[in-house]
Amino acid sequence: MNNSWSSEIWRLVGLLFVGLFLGLVTGRFALMLLLIVSAYLIWHLYNLHRLDMWLQGKRTGMPEVAEGAWSNVYYHLYRLQQRNRRRKKRLATMVNRFRESTNALPDAAVIMSANGTIENWNKKAAELLDLKSPHDTGQLITNLIRNPEFARYFRRSDYAEPLRMKSPLNELVRLSMQIVPYGNKQLLLLVRDVTRLYKLEQVRKDFIANVSHELRTPLTVISGYLETILDAQDEWADENDKILSSMMQQTIRMQNIVTDLLLISRLETDDSEHKRDQVDVPAILEMIREDADALSMGRHKIKLASDRILWLYANHEEIVSVFSNLIYNAVKYTPEGGDINIRWFADERGAWLEVEDNGAGIAPQHLPRLTERFYRVDVGRSRESGGTGLGLAIVKHVLKRHNGRLEIDSELGKGSTFRCYFPISLVIEKEVA
Ligand code: ADP
């Protein structure tokens, strides 16, 4: 028994003695004892009332000092309350930290009970699934994501593989949904925006389909002719030239496709081979202009205006590939009598190669897709002129590797301008002797 309780008992004993004494003096024992016990009871009631008031109030400070056993009760209650407050604060900090970290997650996370009742979610989930607080708390997830595939996935209860589906909010967005069971029959739904990945997969699939398609035509032609040669040995002499030149043409096309494909895959994957040197661009342009003249066979007027002292710090082979692709394209897609102007110059932003023609031009809907592999405006015409459909894809990749870019201005029937930009950091002003 501690001090306050023993003093409390002494207080009671003392009071009873006072009652007895007053009883002796007055001769009214019962009345005196009743008065003393009533006073003691009132005092306890008063303290009980103070405690009640303190409990109902804000309970910020220690309750006013009380006497006897009450001081003990007050003190322990106060300690208990302080401990609870500290614990609550720690818990609140932990919850806040947890909320902040889940909000920083790049993926959406939704916490649900075993039957799919939504309990909590992070910021990304609100964005991807349009969850709104407090309205959606307690709703069933299958009521909010109204998709039969998702409902099936939810019911399956085998969540080893994620489910890929269209976003319920936007047809163009693809989501990967994965349920992870955890804790005491809780479920965590993780949602990731995989639109970019989905598009890349599509591009890869298209690419493979295109490669096979592109290689099939030349191979069919070659094998067809070979069959003809074998079937009709006698007529071989007459048909000789036609067959051989066609086979040669298709073989060259196939070789071009394979060379371009290899270059493109090297550009995409290998950075180590990207050697840079001082490249004499004016000399390269002279050389390409001569080849373009040969390709044009006098059908076009090709002009070259090039800044003699303007060199580039770049990869020689890649620059040749970019410039020849653009200049040969101008020849291929400009009808007889057309003009082709090639300009190589620098301004305060960097160096520019401009190839302008007044040829076929390109309709605006094709422009954003021109640099895709195998994309052609006119498939027949491109194949006829020996095109692989990979030229502009190569141009785009090379420019990207040099921190540059390709700009295309074109108007159907009026002509096109293809402009390559190279940043000023690659520009070299070479002194000519
Ligand atoms: P291709 O080998 O078919 O020329 P490219 O990637 O070099 O492939 O070009 C893609 C398509 O862009 C071409 O098929 C053609 O339709 C269009 N194109 C490119 N250059 C020009 C140009 N100077 N004028 C008109 N169309 C062009």
CATH topology of the largest domain: Heat Shock Protein 90
What is the CATH homology-level superfamily of the largest domain? Answer: Histidine kinase-like ATPase, C-terminal domain
Helical proportion, percent range: 40-55%
Distance between the termini: 110 Å
Task: Report strand %.
Answer: 15-25%
- State the shape: elongated
Rg is 44 Å
Total number of beta strands: 13
The mean pLDDT is 88
* Number of helices, where a helix is a run of at least 4 consecutive DSSP H or I residues: 12
CATH architecture of the largest domain: 2-Layer Sandwich
Question: Could you state the order of secondary-structure elements as H and E?
Answer: HHHEEHHHEEEHHEHEEHEEHHEEE
What is the C-level CATH assignment of the largest domain? Answer: Alpha Beta
* Structural class assignment: alpha+beta
Q: What ions, cofactors and ligands are bound? A: adenosine-5'-diphosphate
Oligomeric category: single chain
Number of domains: 4
Major sheet attributes? 5 strands, antiparallel
